Amino acid sequence: MPIHKAGSGYQWGNHGHIYPTRAGAEKQAAAAHAHGFQDAADTPQCAGLLLVTQDREFLLLKRTDRDEWEGPGGHVKEGESDTAAAIRECFEEVGPLSFPMPDPVFIRTTAEYGCLYAIYAQRVDRFTPVLNEEHSEARWVTAHELPETTHPGTRAAIESIAGNERAIAGSIQTGLFPSPQRINDLWLFDLRVTGTGVSFRSQLNEWVYRPPEFYLCPEFLERCNGVPVIFNHPEKSSLNTEEWRERAIGALILPYIPVTEDDKHRIDEVWSIARIYDSDAAELMMTTHTSTSPSVKFETEGSTQSVLAEDGNLLLIEGNPSFLCHVAVCSAGVWDQGGAPRGINY
């Protein structure tokens, strides 16, 4: 459809992390118990690092001691963290890397050959590895091109990152993949659902206060699932059948609250990964329409109240919204709070 109106609780990244982790002994004990080991202290610890490109290609290495493909990894030395071990083993098995290695994203822990194996992932630029004696061959492959003899734990980790559109959406949320990502004819974008606190609505010449407690909570995140994404608000606030046909471009699928701030995300906002089906809209979301504006309704009597601010403007104090109608892609939104548009992460 063309656009007619175009006129360490978290290991890495600036996004809310969908892979919660635990530190040190607590994490090892939990993993050991989950895999049937009696004592984490006596269980050998291993760690590996999956290297993945922006194009969702993973580096796999073929072992020399058995017909199996895996990512770089090995045993954790005494006094070494599993993250440090994963990075060290990576350097030993693929050669020195010419780019910085921030804290990688924790993916999962598996039980392999009598040890606990912590698997991490790190986005890198594609390079030619220099192998040591442990591996005979290297390949860059997508999640749908894995060799038949890929190690089961490695296969499961890769599929959890990029095996389908939901996995890729989660990897955008963690910061492992940048936004947007194209999958066949579908785009996945990281976009802002709403801000909270105080902002100014220039069209209505009023200030608005949106209480954080009604939005930065699990209940509101649940309500965001499946909310339509449209292109610009309707002339009237309601999204009826005609307006839906004219403006609908996608839907929210993975709402979250950022845990740290950067030049896009703030911890007092709600963000979501969105499925965008309209290629014209996707192009504009990376050029001219780089913000968002939510539409909420307050149908309960007394759920909003207006007071006169010190500067003579009206201040609308909102309550708990009774209906979340849609999120509109636009050139500038109220929750940019007067700054540069920043509702679309691209």
Brief characterization of the structure:
This protein is of the alpha+beta class. The protein has helices at 24-34, 82-94, 152-162, 165-174, 218-224, 241-247, 279-284, and strands spanning 45-52, 58-63, 69-70, 73-75, 105-112, 115-123, 135-141, 181-183, 186-194, 197-201, 206-210, 228-231, 248-256, 270-276, 291-297, 304-308, 314-318, 323-330, 344-345. The protein is 19% helix and 32% strand.
Structure description:
The protein has 346 residues and is an alpha+beta fold. Helix content is 19%, strand content 32%. The protein has seven helices and 19 strands. It has helices spanning 24-34, 82-94, 152-162, 165-174, 218-224, 241-247, 279-284; strands at 45-52, 58-63, 69-70, 73-75, 105-112, 115-123, 135-141, 181-183, 186-194, 197-201, 206-210, 228-231, 248-256, 270-276, 291-297, 304-308, 314-318, 323-330, 344-345. The strands form four sheets. Strands 8, 9, 12, 13, 14, 15, 18 and 19 form an eight-stranded mixed sheet that branches. Strand 8 and strand 9 form a beta hairpin. Helix 3 packs across helix 4 (165-174). Residues 1-23 have low confidence and may be disordered.
